[in-house]
Each structure stands twice: as C-alpha cells, then as structure tokens.
Amino acid sequence: MKGSVLLNYEKMGVKEKRQLLLASPTKRYVSYEESKYKINAYFIHSNNIQECYRERMVSFIPMLPLLEEQVRIEEADYILYSHAYARCEDMSHVVIKELKYLDSIRKPGAEIIVVGKAANAENLLNGSIKNITFWMSHFTEKLGKKFGFDIREQYFVYDDEEDHLAIWTVDGCMQKCNFCRRTYMHIPFESIPLDIIKQNLDYFKNNAPEKMRNISLRAENLTEYGIDIYGKQCLDELIDLIESYDEVETLDCPIGLCIGEITPAIKNSLCKSKKLNAISLNLEAGTDRLLKVIGKKHSIEDAITLYHDLRETHPEIHMRTTVMIGLPTETMTDVYALAELITVTQPDYVLCNYYVCAPKHPLANFEQMTESLREYHLKIFLKHIGDTFQRNVVVSHERIFKNKKSRKVIKMMEELKESNKHQDFPGYFKFQTRYKIIE
Length: 439
Description:
Elements: E1 5-6, E2 19-20, E3 32-37, E4 41-46, H1 53-63, E5 78-83, H2 92-105, E6 111-115, H3 121-125, E7 132-135, H4 139-147, E8 156-159, E9 164-171, E10 190-191, H5 194-207, E11 214-219, H6 227-230, H7 235-243, E12 250-253, H8 264-272, E13 276-280, H9 288-294, H10 300-313, E14 318-325, H11 332-345, E15 349-354, H12 371-388, E16 393-402, H13 406-419, E17 429-438
Parallel strand pairs: 4-5, 5-6, 6-7, 9-11, 11-12, 12-13, 13-14, 14-15, 15-16, 16-17
Antiparallel strand pairs: 1-2, 1-8, 3-4, 8-9, 9-10
C-alpha cells in the first residue's frame, strides 16, 4: 500500500487517531509479511498481503498497534498465521505444507492461530496438528478478547490514497458458481445491519464530512446484502440510505454486483441514483450456453438490457467488467460472441482473466483447454474488439505465471502489448498487461 489509512480509533478505546502505513513485500509474489506481536507472538502472512484488500483494510491494519516487539519464531508463545489463498487458484496445499512446517519448528506449548480464509485448512488437516486454533471470521476481535486488547474489525475505512470511504457491507456469498472458490471453501455470510451503517455514516457526517464525499460499497456479493438479516435482498434500501446524505457526492460499486441477482428494486435504485458514478458488472462469458456451464444466473439479454438502462440513465457512468478466456468447452463461437457482447454493452474497462482450474472446481470434470489454444483465443478476442469497439476502453489482462515455463508466455504478452502501437489496434484501444511471477 502506497498511502496510509485513517482509522477511527475512538471506537477501539484508543484516544489518538493514527496514520498507519502497511508495507508489503514486492520482490516476490509468494512472500512472507512478517511482524512481531508484543505479547511474545509471531505474525506470518504467507502470500503478498496486497492480494486481499478486504482482509488488509478490515482486519490486519487494526491489528498493527499490537505488532511492536520482535521475537524469533522458535521463541514465540503464539504463531499467528494467515494466507489470502484461493484468490486466483486453490493454494490449500501450500497452506497445509506451511502449517506443518510451523508445527515442526515451534517450541513446546506454542499455539498456532490460523486466521481468515486459511482457516479452511482445518478440515483438510483432519486433526493432524495439535494445539492449533482456527478463526475464519472476526479474528481481529477474537485476538483482542484473547489477549485483552480492545480491537476489532473496521468495516468503515477511509482510504486516503483512493480518497474514498470504503464500506464492507457483506462478507461471503451464497452462490457456488462453477469456477469460484466458493465451491470448495467456506466463508461465513454476514451483512452489516442498516442501522449500524447509518450510525457510522452519521459519525462521519458529524466528525469528518469531507471523508464521506466518495463512498465505495464493497462486498463479495453486494447484490445479496441483507438476506441473512432481513430475509430479502436490501441493496436498494442501502443505496437509498446513502442517497439521503447531502455530504455524499459520488457512489462507486467496484465489486460484488451479480447481474443475475439484480432485482427490479435494486435496478430501480441504481438507475435513479443521483450519486452513482462507477459500477462493475461482470459479463463473464459471451453466450448463454457458456454462462450455463459456469453456473451464472443471468442471460446475455439480461446483461445487455442492464448495461443499456444504466448507460441511458447515467450517460457519464464509468462501467467496468470482467470476462474469462479459456473456460472448459469454450469455442471460437463463444470467443467471437464475447467480443460482440463487449461492443454492444460498451464498458469503459475490461479485465480479461484466464480461467484457472482448481482440482475441486466442478469445471475440473471437463477437459481443460491447452495453453496454446487459450493464448490463441485471447489474441482473437483482443483483435476482434480492437477492430470493432467504438468507445475508449482499457483492456487489462492479468495472469499469474509459474516458474520458467512462463517466460515464453510473458514474451508473447509483451509482444501483444507492443502491438497496440501499430496497426493491429486502433488508437482508441488501450491494452494493459499485468503479470506476477512465482519464483
């Protein structure tokens, strides 16, 4: 993280507000984020902590005031372990390996505390490690109670680098799309009640109104907000609540909106909003057949209609989407249809991901596409939208590469990036390549 984050520590029993900077390793993608806990503990976050924005902002940063004194891992009474795995692929085997290693080097009586998504390893370990605790959610609050500190998760965080008030309204998702980690790992579903959200918005209104000018609603599945509390989807009521504050100038929904779960009431609130200026709606695939294969609820017509209605009511709205290339059973017909869908829906930003198969995905039962064919599908997709797209657009391709086999692919992606400067792509078409290397 390049900036700092201002947290409301009055609610945590700390009188002073503090500017906290959380530095992450950048040399390697798989790395250790090491801090030392002043209760003679050792905190290890395996995998770059930047990879999980929610856990970093909601849970890890509130823990920082406690991470002061250094102890060697072999001397620690407590070893706190986290791993933001399964963001792009199932890393459970890495978690198991690392936990077994920690078990082998810890001193007698030392407790291992596994927090966050890595707590899914509990069932996989099957009791093979003793004196180990698993906290999947609310682990900052549980750490505070265990060690006598008044700390807890912060779901309302002003990010001074992005200049927005990030609100994590929902954790978890009730869907099990066939390409998603949800099919093989559990994350508890939990919404924040509307009255709690209002209390926090009122706090900012009365104490720091300039920090609520830009609101960013964040969730793994924002469209399901409220189901666990009210027995129905209440995102429309949440949007209406935010609309009622004159201090709020813009509203961004950068993640978590599922096209197939947008009810008429939610759509109406989005369309009539006076503050909505950016939204992410993931198209995923370009044909109804392929959408059915991956377990999505929406149809191509649903997506086109939603994009059209939002663009009609908000001509200046910034619309983002994510699509996948290389899905099982994908054909050139699907690739061309996806490119056509992009030209029809007219998003401003397209994130193009390769499908990454995990052994526990339902899609693992299908024949997987070869790497060379997948690269060819990507080239055809990019070429087609480059030839036909009529809006300024950024297409970003992000891929995690493994070992030396990745060098050839990296070279190909750099060549694709370079081709943007020549006749293959019109001037209004911008192509970004982002890649990370696992050593």
